[in-house]
């Protein structure tokens, strides 16, 4: 805060700053979000702003409680981004209290209990999502067919208020299961997924995002675009997303090859659920991923593999959140063991032995 | 009933035999840790820690009976080293009490040389019937001289802070951007 | 073969003693503040757990049951566990005095680590045979070690964080353990 | 020539266009010169003059006692930059971030600027190596790149190892600074002459003159000048900050890494700055001690940036006036470059032997940012030329974990500021590392003191044991003597009785 106190070089600086980073991530998220909001109509829009508002509120309260300067931290964009990602991880028509609770868990338990920005162990948005998923499985798996804004069936603003605040969802006809849930149901029934009504052929639509699912599951294509943008402006490094995609693609392909009746193809795994969102926007969270590039490769590969196993064998249809939390827990361990070789030292940290010319001394 | 008692007794006996054998063959004579710790201590035998020398202090440390901050001559550096060796957490702010050195009040000094004889580091100079004085940089603050002084003319005083010069100046620690309540609390402890 | 692998997978991840069964929390919180201590504790517990799981199975099958002494099960198991822990303690003191120092009171406390007795009893409950018992014990211990090491890393980082004063130390440790436990729920159903 | 890669590095905007095309100019004689007695690494010089004394240009005014006896001591003498009268010898405000006072000699120029009696010029070809080194030492020459390490002491490496090559550092990687660039462009022949003297002293077969590949004119001038000299080659190195760090320059040129904690001589190399070579030329060929240097005055707040030939001890305020003053109030005044330079605010501090630039930067150039918490983005890791993990060191130092920080490589940090430059949270990492290094030094001093005390106590123990042994031996001897006497007496008595 106190610039006058800082008397040490360097006195030049690159254009990077925390608010700039946060802003660019939000910019990258914007197209996919706008599309999702359009797809899911007024209730989704209202919920989106409820979550961001509550995140900001809890951020401000936490900062006040911790006696930290409120304004600069509130304006750095981190709370908005956290709220935004929570919103992307929730069902679009969830009741208001799910949203507020999500904001509360993410900001307070996800972040401020650990000491605030940059100090958390787990990704706040994923903490919120998983805590809510375990506590309120019904509300958290309520997905519906997209109801584009201004479409006939789409609720208008007052209906939307009713849906979000009064739980006035009376439209069972709209509820629908996401691809992964459908697969899971077939698994439970012991049926072959081949019979599921053209799951694989739905893929192009999945990429466009007109399938039932969470906010962040809509429109994998726009999310990929956002991710590529982040790579281009060097906000994220390619290591984590690449390793995630690669490990998932590899394992899913092998599994599908050996047991196509049980395992869906690689593309279904890559572009359904929150995998793309997770790969570009959540796993790449600076704070909770390893700092080294090698570490990031390991981290990403771990997330991809764990996601696959959780999706394929556990009781949960979707595993990105769990996988990211599990690998977040491994991050300090990875950072502890993967260190660069210091200049002038050997890999083990001993100073190099100089190649003294023989016969030194005259 | 008998079977139960017998069975338990037999089991207990068997395990007892095994354990006593283990204790026999895997016995540890001296405490190797204490040896290592003794090496780390200054070995000034000044007794400021309350033990009669560095060996007993090392043994107490190894047994976990005393704090790693016990040794004033070793200072914070030694405490940190011991803490790392023993894998214990320390609060270095506890160590913040200033190191003391002996100071001879010249008006009362009779030049008896008694203090010179007991000083573990020979840091007092003087001759019989001459004023004695303390070489501050060599004084460990053992206070052994205090007890033997017949006129009580020696006092333990804090080391006077060296005058800051461009050469001795160190960069101050920048302030943290988030002065949290916890940080404020530790800072007030420091004072 | 497959069932043995499943037992290992199940005990390490799905039914992790610490995070899913909530056994052995005392050493989990007590010794996980440093990598070295966590690894040492993990190894010591692995030794004790595996050995006691196997020994308790043998005692149950060839000693207690034939003699009709089922009511002495708890006493006997605890006796055996205590003996193994005592043996481990003597051995560690000899092999690594530093580790002995690091583990401190938690080493004898392995005796009362409910994970050890828990695993021995669970073995009987689930009607495992000898190999299964051995693996069950070993797997649980590996699960324990894994979580210990993972958690040690987290706590080394937490120590350097500006955790609010009210949450410093054990509170933040428990909250983190809770979140970790939540993450491990993702494995539920992985092995029936 | 094959070049190698260095880890890390950043590309800050260099702003050299501000002063690169301004020829070196002289500065009008200032009304007062202040000469710090400590313008080098090592032991400070002691004033050799009295207040009121008249001195000539080049007269010795500060010398260290140890340096006087031999040139092995790491110290350097100070000479009068012009003729005049000594008006003051006192502690005065120094050009140092602490703002603490230093011993300085104040000189009032008489305007004649008359050289006094100078040592005779030496012919490098016919003089002995020790003569040449002695001349370099007595001329007060130190590393002119900013490190200010006494050059004569550096050249002593020749006594310990067989040197392979001499590297001349013309890679002026700090933004804004063009002093070396201009020197190379305008006085290449003199520099090359200095280099050949160094080459003779060090007895190295080849010399590599490293210049950043954007400084084309300087490289051309140097290539022309080296034409006839054997074994000298000009090598263009990539423009990258911190290329001017000698360890990194060596890595780029040879692929070898200077071992942690060691000097380039461990690889059989010696690195010297172009400015140093120029000063050596003047000292050897004309007997002139180091009394002036080239300084770049630049930055957005300076009206007419340029490169100046400045007498040591000239006040910054005088130099700024020469440049037409400020065009706007500067946000930050710096000695040296913006990446590693020192901040100061009092314009009455003097130019010293290591001052390669005076910068007055505007707010838009400094881009001051809010210091925020570390978000572990890892941007500092690829920027670090020493392959450290600055974010890790930062967290450790912030929590006073100095020992773990040393294990993580704090001592290997060269304080280049690349990490701070890229840090999106604007964390003053360099200051944290400086602080950590200071703490480490204090800890080491404490350990050394403890070791010394232990030695004292051990010695005393040995002595008192020896005393006790002697005492016992004496007692034993006395006892024995008594016993013997008794025995003799008895024998005698017995004899008497028998008789």
For the record, give the distance between the C-alpha atoms at the N and C termini of chain A, rounded to a whole number: 57 Å
List the uncertain runs of chain A: 1-5, 357-362
* Helix-strand category of chain A: mainly alpha
Question: What is the string of SSEs of chain A from the N terminus onward?
Answer: HHHHHHHHHHHHHHH
Overall strand count of chain B: 4
Class inferred from helices and paired strands of chain B: mainly alpha
Helix content of chain A: 55-70%
Please give the radius of gyration of chain B in angstroms.
Answer: 26 Å
CATH top level label of chain A: Mainly Alpha
Low-pLDDT runs of 5+ residues of chain B are 179-191
Query: Could you give a short account of the major beta sheet of chain B?
Result: 2 strands, antiparallel
Into which percentage range does the β-strand content of chain A fall? under 5%
Largest interface: A-D, 49 and 74 residues
Model description:
The complex is a heterotetramer of chains A (362), B (191), C (192) and D (499). Chain A has helices spanning 18-65, 70-75, 78-89, 96-109, 124-135, 137-140, 157-166, 179-188, 203-208, 220-232, 239-258, 266-271, 275-282, 293-313, 320-337. Chain A has 362 residues and is an all-alpha fold. Chain A has a single domain (18-335), classed as Ammonium transporter fold (Orthogonal Bundle). The longest helix of chain B is centred in the first third of the chain and has 24 residues, at 2-25. In chain B, helix 2 packs across helix 3 (54-62). With 191 residues, chain B is mainly alpha-helical. The relative contact order of chain B is 0.10. Chain B has helices at 2-25, 32-40, 54-62, 75-86, 114-118, 144-148, 181-190, and strands at 100-104, 124-125, 133-134, 154-158. Chain C is 72% helix and 0% strand. Chain C is built from 8 helices and no strands. Chain C is globular, with a radius of gyration of 17 Å. The model of chain C has no long low-confidence stretch (mean pLDDT 86). Chains in contact: A-B, A-C, A-D, B-C, B-D, C-D. At the A-D interface, helix 1 of A face helix 4, helix 15 and helix 16 of D.
Quick gist of this model?
Chain B is mainly alpha-helical and 191 residues long. Chain B has seven helices and four strands.
Structure keywords:
B: mainly alpha, 3-methyladenine DNA Glycosylase II, Chain A, domain 3, Alpha-Beta Plaits, disordered C terminus, D: 499 residues, alpha/beta, Rossmann fold, 2 domains, 16 helices
């Amino acid at each position: 805060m106190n610039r006058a106190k800082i008397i040490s070089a360097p006195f030049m600086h690159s254009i990077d700053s925390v608010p700039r980073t946060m802003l660019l991530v939000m910019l990258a998220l914007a197209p996919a979000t706008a599309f999702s909001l359009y797809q899911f109509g007024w209730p989704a829009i209202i919920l989106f702003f409820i979550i961001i508002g509550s995140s900001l509120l809890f951020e401000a309260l936490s900062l006040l409680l911790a006696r930290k300067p409120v304004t600069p931290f509130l304006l750095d964009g981190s709370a908005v981004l956290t709220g935004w990602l929570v919103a992307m991880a929730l069902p679009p028509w969830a009741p208001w209290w799910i949203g507020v609770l999500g904001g509360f868990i993410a900001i307070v338990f996800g972040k401020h209990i650990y000491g605030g920005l940059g100090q958390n162990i787990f990704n706040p948005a994923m903490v919120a999502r998983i805590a809510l998923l375990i506590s309120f499985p019904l509300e958290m798996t309520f997905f519906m067919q997209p109801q584009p804004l201004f479409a006939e069936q789409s609720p208008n603003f007052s209906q939307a208020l009713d849906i979000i605040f009064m739980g006035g969802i009376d439209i069972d006809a709209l509820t629908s299961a996401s691809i992964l849930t459908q697969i899971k149901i077939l698994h439970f029934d012991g049926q072959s997924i081949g019979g599921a009504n053209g799951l694989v052929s739905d893929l192009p639509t999945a990429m466009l995002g007109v399938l039932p699912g969470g906010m962040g599951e809509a429109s994998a294509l726009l999310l990929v675009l956002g991710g590529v943008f982040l790579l281009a402006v060097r906000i994220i490094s390619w290591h984590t997303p690449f390793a995630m995609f690669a490990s998932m693609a590899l394992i899913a392909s092998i599994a599908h090859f050996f047991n196509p009746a049980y395992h869906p193809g690689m593309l279904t795994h890559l572009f359904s659920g929150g995998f793309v969102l997770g790969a570009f926007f959540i796993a790449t969270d600076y704070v909770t991923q390893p700092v080294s590039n090698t570490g990031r490769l390991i981290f990403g590969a771990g997330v991809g593999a764990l996601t696959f196993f959780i999706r394929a064998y556990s009781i949960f249809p979707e595993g990105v959140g769990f996988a990211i939390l599990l690998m977040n827990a491994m991050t300090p361990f990875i950072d502890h063991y993967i260190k660069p070789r210091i200049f002038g030292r050997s890999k083990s940290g001993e100073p190099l032995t100089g190649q003294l010319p023989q016969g030194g001394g005259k | 009933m008998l079977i139960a008692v017998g069975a338990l007794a037999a089991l207990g006996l068997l395990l007892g035999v095994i354990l006593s054998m283990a204790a026999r063959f895997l016995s540890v004579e001296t405490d190797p840790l204490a040896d290592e710790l003794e090496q780390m201590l200054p070995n000034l035998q000044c007794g400021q820690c309350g033990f009669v020398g560095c060996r007993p202090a090392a043994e107490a440390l190894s047994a976990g009976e005393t704090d790693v901050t016990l040794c004033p001559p070793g200072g914070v550096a030694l405490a940190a080293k011991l803490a790392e060796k023993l894998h214990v957490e320390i609060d270095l702010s506890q160590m913040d009490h200033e190191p003391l050195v002996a100071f001879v009040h010249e008006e009362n000094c009779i030049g008896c040389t008694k203090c010179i004889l007991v000083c573990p580091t020979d840091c007092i100079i003087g001759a019989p019937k001459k004023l004695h004085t303390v070489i501050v940089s060599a004084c460990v603050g053992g206070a052994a001289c205090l007890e033997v002084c017949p006129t009580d003319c020696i006092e333990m005083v804090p080391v006077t802070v060296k005058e800051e010069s461009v050469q001795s100046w160190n960069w101050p620690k920048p302030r943290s951007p988030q002065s949290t309540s916890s940080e404020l609390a530790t800072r007030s402890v420091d004072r | 073969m497959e069932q043995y692998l499943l037992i290992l997978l199940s005990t390490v991840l799905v039914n992790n003693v610490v995070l899913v069964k909530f056994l052995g929390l005392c050493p989990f919180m007590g010794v996980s503040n440093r990598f070295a201590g966590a690894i040492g504790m993990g190894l010591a517990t692995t030794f004790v757990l595996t050995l006691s799981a196997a020994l308790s199975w043998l005692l149950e099958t060839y000693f207690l049951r034939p003699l009709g002494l089922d009511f002495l099960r708890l006493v006997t198991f605890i006796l055996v566990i205590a003996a193994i822990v005592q043996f481990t303690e003597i051995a560690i003191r000899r092999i690594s005095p530093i580790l002995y120092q690091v583990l401190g009171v938690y080493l004898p406390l392995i005796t009362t680590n409910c994970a050890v007795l828990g695993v021995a009893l669970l073995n009987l409950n689930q009607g495992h045979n000898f190999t299964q018992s051995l693996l069950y014990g070993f797997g649980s211990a590996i699960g324990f070690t894994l979580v210990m090491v993972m958690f040690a890393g987290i706590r080394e980082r937490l120590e350097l964080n500006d955790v609010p004063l009210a949450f410093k130390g054990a509170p933040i440790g428990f909250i983190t353990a809770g979140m970790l436990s939540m993450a491990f729920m993702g494995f539920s159903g992985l092995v029936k | 020539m094959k070049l190698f890669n260095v880890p890390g590095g950043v590309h800050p905007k260099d702003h050299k266009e501000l002063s690169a095309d301004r020829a070196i100019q002289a500065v009008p004689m200032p009304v007062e010169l202040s000469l710090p007695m400590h313008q080098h690494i090592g032991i400070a010089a002691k004033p050799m003059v009295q207040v009121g004394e008249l001195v000539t240009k080049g007269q010795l005014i500060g010398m260290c006692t140890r340096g006087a006896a031999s040139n092995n001591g790491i110290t350097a003498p100070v000479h009068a930059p012009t003729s005049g009268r000594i008006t003051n010898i006192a502690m005065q405000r120094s050009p140092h971030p602490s703002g603490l006072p230093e011993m300085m000699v104040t000189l009032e120029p008489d305007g004649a600027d008359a050289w006094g009696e100078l040592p005779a010029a030496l012919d490098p070809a016919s003089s002995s190596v020790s003569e040449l080194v002695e001349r370099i030492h007595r001329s007060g020459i130190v590393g002119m790149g900013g490190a200010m390490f006494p050059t004569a002491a550096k050249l002593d490496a020749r006594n310990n190892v067989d040197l392979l090559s001499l590297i001349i550092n013309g890679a002026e990687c700090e933004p804004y600074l063009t002093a070396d660039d201009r020197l190379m462009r305008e006085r290449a022949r003199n520099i090359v002459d200095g280099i050949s003297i160094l080459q003779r002293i060090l007895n190295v077969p080849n010399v590599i003159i490293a210049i950043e590949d954007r400084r084309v004119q300087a490289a051309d001038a140097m290539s022309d000048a080296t034409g006839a000299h054997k074994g000298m080659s000009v090598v263009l190195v990539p423009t990258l900050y911190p290329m001017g760090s000698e360890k990194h320059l060596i890595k780029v040129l040879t692929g070898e890494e200077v071992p942690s904690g060691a000097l380039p001589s461990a690889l059989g190399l010696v690195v010297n700055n172009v400015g140093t070579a120029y000063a050596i030329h003047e000292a050897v060929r004309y007997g002139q001690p180091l009394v002036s240097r080239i300084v770049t005055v630049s930055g957005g707040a300076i009206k007419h940036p340029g490169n100046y030939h400045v007498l040591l001890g000239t006040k910054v305020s005088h130099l700024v006036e020469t440049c037409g003053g400020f065009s706007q109030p500067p946000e930050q005044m710096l000695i040296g470059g913006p990446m590693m330079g020192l901040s100061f605010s009092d314009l009455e501090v003097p130019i010293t032997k290591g001052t390669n630039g005076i910068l007055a930067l505007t707010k838009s150039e400094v881009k001051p940012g809010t210091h925020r918490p570390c978000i572990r983005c890892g941007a500092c890791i690829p920027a670090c030329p020493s392959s450290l993990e600055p974010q890790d060191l930062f967290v450790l130092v912030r929590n006073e974990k100095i020992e773990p920080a040393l294990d993580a490589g704090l001592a290997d940090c060269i304080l280049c500021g690349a990490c701070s430059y890229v840090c999106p949270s604007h964390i003053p990492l360099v200051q944290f590392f400086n602080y950590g290094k200071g703490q480490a030094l204090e800890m080491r001093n404490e350990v050394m003191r403890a070791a010394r005390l232990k030695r004292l106590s051990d010695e005393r123990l040995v002595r008192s044991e020896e005393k006790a042994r002697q005492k016992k031996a004496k007692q034993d001897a006395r006892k024995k003597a008594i016993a013997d006497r008794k025995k003799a007496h008895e024998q005698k008595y017995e004899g008497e009785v028998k008789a």
